[in-house]
Every structure is written in C-alpha cells, then in structure tokens.
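Can you give me the bound-state structure? Components:
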Amino acid sequence: MSGADPEVVIRLRGVTNAFGTQVVHDALDLDIRRGEVLGVVGGSGTGKSVLLRTIVGLRAPQAGSIEIFGTETVGCDEVTRAAIDRRMGVMFQDGALFSSLTVRENVEVPLRAVPGLSADVRRGLADLKISLSGLPWLAGGKYPSELSGGMRKRAGLARALALDPEIVFLDEPTAGLDPIGATGFDELIHGLSRSLGLTVFLVTHDLDTLHATCDRIAVLAEKRVLVTGTMTEMLAVDHPWVHEYFHGPRARAAQETAGQGRGAD
Amino acid sequence: MVKDTQHGIEIDTGGDTCRVRLSGPQTVAQATVLDRALAGLPADRAAEIDLSAAERIDTAGAWAIARAQARIRAAGQEVRIAGADDVRVALIETVAGALPAPDAAAQKRRSLADLLEGVGRAVAGAGRYVLELTGYLGLFLARLGHALIRPREFYLTALLHHCQGVGWAAVPIVALMAFLIGVVLAFQGSAQLRQFGAEIFVVDLIAISILRELGILLTAIIVAGRTASAFTASIGSMKMREEIDAMRTLGIDPVQALFVPRILALILMLPVLGLIANVAGLFGGALMAWVELGISPAMFRVRLVEGTDVTHVAVGMIKATVFAVIIGVIGCHAGMQVESNAESLGRMTSAAVVAAIFAVILADALFSIFFAQVGW
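Here's the bound-state model for the whole set.
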C-alpha cells in the first residue's frame, strides 16, 4: 500500500474457513504490522473469533496461507508451531483461567516451561505481570472464582503476557465490563502496547476501544476483510454496513467522547 | 570484578560507583542469573548499569534491573541506567512502577493452635452441615404438605420422569447385584453350615440376611452412587447457570419444582427397588442352594415360608423409605452448594455420593440397634 512498508509480522493470504457447507471466510487477506494495535470488527457471525482461533493455530483453515514472523504455519510441524506459539499470547474472552490454580499459579504456568528459572524469580515475574495488568497484587493468591469478570480478564492478560510475547491476541477484552472498567482496560492495552512494544490483535465490538486504542481497524464482512485503515479512513468508507457501523448513534457518541478526551490532553 | 561472559554480565565493584555492563539478550531465559548477580551489588554506593551492548531486554530483564534499582535506592544511593534508548527507559520505568510491594510475602507457619483451630472448624462445619440437611428435610416436608393441600401446584410430570430415572433405569443393575449377593451367601453359607450338618438353615441365612439387611442396604448404596450424584449434578449445573435464580424471579419455587419431585420419586422407588432386590437375591440363593446342596426350589419355598417371619421384609421396607429421604436430601443439598465454577460442581458431586453412602450405612447401624431394642 504505502511506500515504506513497516515490517509485517502476520500475513494472511487466501484464508478460507468453512463449517460444513457454511463458508465463514472466503479467500481472506490481512496484514498485521509490528507494533500496531489492530482492531478487528464485524457483525455477529462474521467469524472474528474464528479468525483469531485460526491465526493462533486452534483451527486449521480449509485453504490459504498464514505466515507468522515470516514462517508459514498452515501445515507446519509441531516444533515450528511451538516456537511460534511461545512468541504469541492469547487472552480469551472470559480469561480462560485454570480454575484449580490461583491467579499467580496461572501466570506461572507458561513460565514453568523456561529452563533454569528459579522458583522465587518465577514468582516475582508472575507478580510483576499481575501488577502490570493492573490487578492489586493481593489478587495473586486468589482463585479465579473469587474474582470479578474484569479482574479475570486482567488475570488472563497477565498470563498471556507471561513470556513477553511479541504479539498478543485479545478476544473481546471489554465485553461485559462496566464503562469505567472498560476504559481502564483500554488504557491498559494502549499503555502496554507502547511500553512493551507489543503488537496487538484485538477482536472487539466496542467503539470506544477502537477509538482509544487501535492504530488500524480491519472490518470483516462479506466473508473477507472488507477494508482496513485508521479510524479517519473508516469514517470515509461508503460501504453500507461500514457506514452504519461507524456513523450510527453509538459511534457518534464514542466519537464525541474520544474528541473530548483528546481536548483534555 | 565479576565477569560472566556466557550470560553477558560484567560487574566492576572496584570504584566509588559500581559499574554493571550487560550484553547479549537479557531475557526470561537468564532472568535468574541476572537477578542473582544484581542482588549481589553493594547497596552502600551508587551504581551504573550500562545497557548499550544489550541486544534485547524483556520484562524479566527489566524486572531484575528495576529490583536492584529499588533496593539500592532504598539504601539512599543512586542507580543510573546508561546507554538505553527511550523504549528501554520506558520499559524499565513501566516495570519499576509495577513492582509489587515487597512486604507481606512471608509464608505463615502452621502452629499447633492453627491445627486445633482447623479441627474445631471442621467439627463446627460438620454440625452446621447436619443442621442444614435438617433444614432441607423440613423444607421438603413443608412443600410436600403444601402440594397435598394444593395438588395443582404439584409437578406430576417431573415426578414420573424422575421415577423412571431413579427406579426403572436402576432395575437391571440392582437385580443383578442382588442375584449375585444371593449366590455368594448361599455358597459361603453352605460351606460353613455343612460342617455341622445344618445345610437346611442356609435358607434362613439367605432369607434373613437378604430381606433384613443386604437387599435394601446394597440397593441404597447403589442408588446413592447413581442418584445422589445425578441430583447434585443436575441441580448444581442449574445453579451454576443461574437457572435457579431465574426460577425464583419468575415466581417458581425451586424446592417445589426441583426437590419435591426428585425426593418423592426416590421415596416411591427405593422400596420397589428393594423388593426387586429381595426377590432377585432369594432367587440367586435358591439357585445356588439347589446346585450346591441339593435343596430343591420347592423345599426352599416351604422352608422360607415356615421359617422366616414377614417382619423381616417390613424392616427392610421401613429402612428403604428412610434411606430414600437421606439420599435425596443430601443430593439436593449438595446441588444447591455448587458455586459458579465447574470445579465446585465436580467437588460437590463426589462429596454428595460419599456423604450419602456414609449416612445410609450410619442409619442402617442405628436401625439395627433400634429394631433389636423393639424386638422385631
């Protein structure tokens, strides 16, 4: 597209996903660039989560190629996949924490795979990740069932960040959070992506999140990525669904909030 | 002067300022080494950490640096980070800002007092558990009475559905189990009684032990395993998905809708299952007595009718009703204790089975004493 292309860390070409006869993605192309926060939006059932699961390797696509860090991952062997998995972190919608472990033990799970990491350092690093995710450090000793939904998401993020991934996948990070919690999470994602140099792939419905955190937005519709670009570019797209999405009453409200936020800065 | 070329750590503690030079990647893989090395920095003088030769630093490396920084700064000395670009400075600052408070990490040791407290809590918990079960029994009886006054509010379809699940579906396993127990009793009994030439008393042995004790007790244990767990799992999963709360808001009484049909189905079905077990047990015993001792079925029948009082059957049936109430109440109670996670569902299900089997055996022991006193 532009002249000096930034490094592309994930390159999807012609990805096709189908459940039986129902085709979800038909020859989908998408690039994710290093260091950006990419927001993926789309109506219900357009396969946003399916796309996320396909990229992180939980689902094999029917056709197409997915290159991560320059390595083809469709049909690659397990060793290659494991090496790539170590450089990526996933936060599932409700945190997907292991319910029999405390939050700290949950965060320690990926750290246990690192050879030569002593128990106290592992514990310290887990506490650091818990704290980075904006949880009070006392939360480390609690079980997932003792946490609120927002705290479970943060704990899920702490676990996703445990091994300093280069790319983090977030599935609906602000769904089910109150506006204050959602704003806090937006700021957290924005702050971490800057200070840790993360690339973030974000599936969301939340227009405020798109305004507050995303560098680029990809719209899923008609079984492919219909359009990608910044928020400003999105506002100029005249596809009916995209127009409806970014110009609806909720979108206007989110735009105003974002405008006010910028004014206050 | 410490030089660890393998890990890219050089520490010079010679001058007024400790000089630390890090090279290569400082990531989670060697966070332990780096943390140990930096923990050895003296806190009585300033330090400078030079990152200009470090290829890559992740949060683990930054954590070790920030920890040393915080420790030395707490002692009133300065730590300078040199040769770091904006990104690294931001990373170390973010990590330093997120360093957890260093206190309160001390593990509590368990003392004798804690141990005693634990025992006390367990005893009090057991007492509370029995009280709660009594409460559930009362709730069940109250709602049952309510249903008798207003039969329209009774869930008859649910009752029949549970009768099928609790009773009909358990017939094969119960019958097979009792048949085999009858066979075993006859076989073992004949081996012992033959020594005294008292083979014919094997009929009394089988009849009394099956009708009075084993038939109903083993049936109750099987039903406790099958049905208490099923009750807990079904009610517990409804509790987990807030279905029970939804029922309450819709004006449906969960006790009336869930507990009464289930426990009532057990009360109706367990005696029937017990009778089936009795018949199957006697049949198995008669078969084995015929094969092993040559006691013909006709002789077995005559001896059974003459030598065995019908009160034995009555004793078994009275026990069956009580066992049914115990199993049902424990299963429903455990279901209501399920929290909003899958783990508690599994825990409560197995707890319900253990508690139900234990309670059935305890009740059976109490019944033995009671009937001995009464003279039945």
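A couple of observations. The beta strands of chain B are 2-4, 9-12, 18-26, 47-57, 79-82. Chain B is about 70% helix and 10% strand.
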